[in-house]
Predict the structure.
Amino acid sequence: MKRALVPGTFDPITAGHLDVITRASQLVDEIIVGVAASPKKSPLFSLEERVALAREATKALPNVRVEPFDCLLVVFAEEIGANIVVKGLRAITDFEYEFQMTALNYQLNQAIETIFIMSPPQYMYLSSSIVREIACLHGDMDGFVPECVRAALEAKFA
Amino acid sequence: MKRALVPGTFDPITAGHLDVITRASQLVDEIIVGVAASPKKSPLFSLEERVALAREATKALPNVRVEPFDCLLVVFAEEIGANIVVKGLRAITDFEYEFQMTALNYQLNQAIETIFIMSPPQYMYLSSSIVREIACLHGDMDGFVPECVRAALEAKFA
Amino acid sequence: MKRALVPGTFDPITAGHLDVITRASQLVDEIIVGVAASPKKSPLFSLEERVALAREATKALPNVRVEPFDCLLVVFAEEIGANIVVKGLRAITDFEYEFQMTALNYQLNQAIETIFIMSPPQYMYLSSSIVREIACLHGDMDGFVPECVRAALEAKFA
Amino acid sequence: MKRALVPGTFDPITAGHLDVITRASQLVDEIIVGVAASPKKSPLFSLEERVALAREATKALPNVRVEPFDCLLVVFAEEIGANIVVKGLRAITDFEYEFQMTALNYQLNQAIETIFIMSPPQYMYLSSSIVREIACLHGDMDGFVPECVRAALEAKFA
Amino acid sequence: MKRALVPGTFDPITAGHLDVITRASQLVDEIIVGVAASPKKSPLFSLEERVALAREATKALPNVRVEPFDCLLVVFAEEIGANIVVKGLRAITDFEYEFQMTALNYQLNQAIETIFIMSPPQYMYLSSSIVREIACLHGDMDGFVPECVRAALEAKFA
Amino acid sequence: MKRALVPGTFDPITAGHLDVITRASQLVDEIIVGVAASPKKSPLFSLEERVALAREATKALPNVRVEPFDCLLVVFAEEIGANIVVKGLRAITDFEYEFQMTALNYQLNQAIETIFIMSPPQYMYLSSSIVREIACLHGDMDGFVPECVRAALEAKFA
């Protein structure tokens, strides 16, 4: 059985993340969405909130499970028995950073393969930080986030 | 009448910004320089100081007006009746970020067109953050900022 | 009056080119679409064919005119009285090349301003060479080119 | 059953290609290595030679099959029943081109998913064109190509 | 005599930094490793600790000396009589930033030449921030840092 | 004694090349400008013409010598006793290609170090191919090429 890890900070999960998770869920038998604690990024949503929003957003996908983690990505992948890591790619800056992290993870554990899925054009500009910025300025989030995330953002910035 | 918005944090306005504003002022009838509040960037100069420095630096340009804003760029553009946004482009990192923001703004309001002007080679390396760093280390700011900004920076780092 | 030049090889004109020309035609009073002879690129369509296809494709735009040229871009811009050059930007490779050409043109004639418009996401991947390749392999060109270009491509590769 | 297409011109197949094919063969049930005719690239090796070298180089991989194709990639993928395309990524230029082609293929057929595997650092600089250049200048190809390709290159440039 | 400055924050010095310093030490007569105070980066290690670790890590290189600095890079280069600055290059983001800083330094003092050495593939993904992150998550730092740095990181994150 | 190789096709040598060679000649004891035969690029000038123009253009630099070569760069470097290769860097595309070639050369011969010098802003857009294009269209080459090259280009395109 192929089990893949889709890691991220998901602060909060966006329509772009959901697109990657949905497409990945059709490539392998089981997906674990790994929500990184990422304390250094001072997330807007707590780890518990981010996990809850990701679970709500992915509940229609039967082979997707959401779990938090606060260790090295390769260590978490081993713990959950995933030998594939799936990442979405949007732009050059993404690419460079992902290239470095993939080379690092490959060095740390060569048994874990990282694969990349490119975001479709309509999600190419979408990121959690842009979503947070739009919400902070009370802009229209239509089409950018799942409904549960929209409500959570509106509550945060009320 | 064509009215264009030149947005930025302008912390502080540099010779590179002035070059973009001056060239843009020859392309359209009226330019509004929009100074974003950008509280998350913890600017060195207050919003009032940044507006004042930008006004002083552009006072010789008759069709240029400086205004602060603290909402989404597309919302501010609508408010002031601007249907063009002008941005200066320097390097790859700029390009990627601007590409994402332009695609986002296009999604939010397709009636607003974003156009880009490339910085000439001599301003290509210039940014507000580099200017702040030089000032902080008491370096020579000759040619990098308008005279009023030089005085303001020297006062900040005295 | 603002007159702008939209230069290119247009071998053939695509839906992405049309998008740039249409949007540019709303920014200035008059647009000259300049079709470069570009003999070194060994174009699929002759200069006459490329001009004819571009004229057919833009005939609904009242302030757009199509003209061939075989001199330096800045020389042609001067000849036609255009002080603005408009280019569409798609990706990094585009950006780098355009950056070099803009710096060069700026060196050759500082009175001519180059402005850039970013392609919307749905045209980001579109180029004349990709269109030629799809046509050559008898793929579906729906949405990629104007109707007259589709017919011309099908005739070429029949 | 998951069947994936690994497309390329393979002129000739390199150690970097083999690395991608081997790793991909562990992710899915069956791999079809699709050798594109690519007449416009004027390949050094004929299509038959390229297919024969790729077959020889992958003969130890039981779930890998090599086939030529001369139609659109998405059409070939459909013909062979592959709903996954696997590409290796090396550098920025690769990334931009692959980004464009993936967006195009996604437009042509949304049922076919493209996934990317990054080359490990030691193969990052390797390409068929560099291998051809080294062979042409009688340089040492040790570690860059499979043994059968080394012999074929030496014969070509004898 | 050629004296070169290898500047950085070195928070902490990594195997990649050591590779650049070692190779640079074979190109010139004397190397000064300049450890920038960089208070804005809120370094993990104090300036004194960073200098001490860099001295320990480079003690086997007879023509290498480590010194702290808290002024503009070109001013420090002048003070120590270095007319060459050596920087390691890893990836695109590096390149863009270094390109800007080099153009700036060239503007500030044209007598100081900046040269770049590319990191070999195995160090391409390595940076102080990645090393700090691995250490923070108690990952294996084998091969990423000199022994003295490993001990210092383990003490910090004990 | 430090002897460095500055390789290129030099079709023809430009003011940007001369800037790199001049600055490199101040860093080492002796410079060999290596003119690659590069038959695959179908150069405008013959190898003899390119060598002659480079010799004429560099005749004022006492420690610079110009030699043709038609083997692998690392083999030529060994033959002439150079253990340093100097390359000029302009833009991203350059960077990526040079990164690949440097990694390849490092693999072929680790005793040869490649160092990079960034072109100053005013030469950033300059390349042999742009110079050939300007000359072909009878544009003004002032400041782009040495006097002897201007005459040679005018003769070619008369």
About this structure: Chains F and A do not touch (no CB pair under 8 Å). Chain F has one domain: 3-124. Residues 92-108 of chain F form the longest helix (17 residues).
